[in-house]
Amino acid sequence: MSYQDRRPGRPSRGKPAPRKDGPRRPPVEDPARRAALDVLYAVRERDAYANLVLPDLLRERRISGRDAALATELAYGTSRAQGLLDDVIAACLDRPLSKVDGKVLDGLRLGAYQLLRTRIPTHAAVGSTVDLVREDVGSHIAGFVNAVLRTVSEKDEAAWVEQLAPDAEKDPIGSFAFHTAHPRWVARSFAEALGDKGAELKAALEADDARPEVHLVARPGEISADELAAITGGEVAPYSPYGVHLPSGSGDLADSEPIREKLAAVQDEGSQLCAIAATKAPLEGSDERWLDLCAGPGGKAALMGALAALQGARVDAVEIAPHRARLIEHAVKDLPVTVHVADGRESGLEPGYDRILVDAPCSGLGALRRRPEARWRRQPSDVSELTKLQAELITAAIGLLRPGGVLTYVVCSPHLAETEGVVGETARRNKLEVLDARELFPGVPRLGDGPYVQLWPHRHGTDAMFCAVLRKP
Ligand SMILES: C[S@@+](CC[C@H](N)C(=O)[O-])C[C@H]1O[C@@H](n2cnc3c(N)ncnc32)[C@H](O)[C@@H]1O
């Protein structure tokens, strides 16, 4: 289908006639789809993060209730499924996708998502999308958008996948990747970490494509997980003693009382478990000086700080980005945590720490559920740059650790290069003892053969966090 094929007003056989091109009608009031489309523009044009743009936009425009839920579903769902939607749209065009104007493509993605992955009726999905694109790009494009979306609507998602996905026998990873809207390289990295190209890979990718639950952490010493669950209507988490899982659709939490009062914060249960592990790794001798070397925005620093307060320890929190350091300051207010804006590779801090957490910058492949557009933005080449930085940060941490001290290395990724690869190599080179991290995750099932811990959404309901614990001789 090309722009020329479908001019506005040209009737299409057997389908509802597109609207006549006439004087511009006032736009239909559709705040949810308008917000979702504006989020897609921001992600594509400004490299914005959907999960940061949308909440601000909903607040600014006072969109709430069902409209907010629909905007969220459409903005995040469309971002998450982008590659799959693009393949379907491309199959309906007679020109490369790269020749389609950016705003028009965002509109087509939004429309195709509604057609393939929601129960919104075809006429509403198509009509509302055509209206939005017409408003932003002009009437001349309406016929084209209408025609492409009508073609998309001729099959459901399963039929499109059947037509376009690689053969499952010949290319199981490519096939699962296509079915679950993941780039192939991401699916391959999951397969390598799991050691599986079959049912478990499928389960991992499916869980990664589902909307995640929101987890809260109850601040130790302030409120128990039971109390927090009772206040919020959530459920006590299965593994973290401080965790609460909220029911889906809990809405904007920033204003809820426990969070405002700093009794609780939003934090994935896997992150909680890793921060707790960093504070519990076995140690002989003093246990008072703790360091969080990559601390922004401060989730783990706050949990470590609360645990440090209970046992008379202190935490230094290092962060290279000043704006993220400010977020840490906010998160650790009233806790025994000192924030330093510095490069962790040369922080200038006094060596001799008893415990150090290196929660290193990483590809984030373990939290793709929470960052809707990330899977399509990340590139394999990002990983090699990151592993260099990760190794440098671990090496700097080793220099700051006292003999007998423990270093916990965490990334939110299952990619072997930034997990076992970087840790194994750096530990060998520096003659560190690798401890069995599984012992620091009591009650957590399916942790494999050790000594490292890799959590997974499909096994544990957490982000895919990796944790290694090393002791300096
Ligand atoms: C994975 S995040 C840490 C998350 C944090 N621990 C939490 O739980 O909220 C990694 C952080 O490291 C910071 N960072 C990147 N390079 C750094 C460096 N060379 N030194 C210190 N921090 C760095 C990033 O800005 C980012 O805030």
UniProtKB/TrEMBL annotation:
GO molecular function annotation: RNA binding; RNA methyltransferase activity
Keywords, sorted A to Z: Methyltransferase, RNA-binding, S-adenosyl-L-methionine, Transferase
Residues annotated for S-adenosyl-L-methionine binding in this entry: C294, A295, G296, P297, G298, G299, K300, E319, D343, D359
Record flagged with keyword Transferase: yes
Species of the source: Amycolatopsis xylanica
Keyword S-adenosyl-L-methionine: yes
Designated name of the protein: 16S rRNA (Cytosine967-C5)-methyltransferase
Biased segments, Basic and acidic residues type: 18-31
Gene3D superfamilies attached to this UniProt entry: NusB-like (1.10.940.10), Vaccinia Virus protein VP39 (3.40.50.150)
Domain SAM-dependent MTase RsmB/NOP-type: 190-473
Top-level taxon: Bacteria
Region described as Disordered: 1-31
Protein family according to the UniProt entry: Belongs to the class I-like SAM-binding methyltransferase superfamily. RsmB/NOP family.
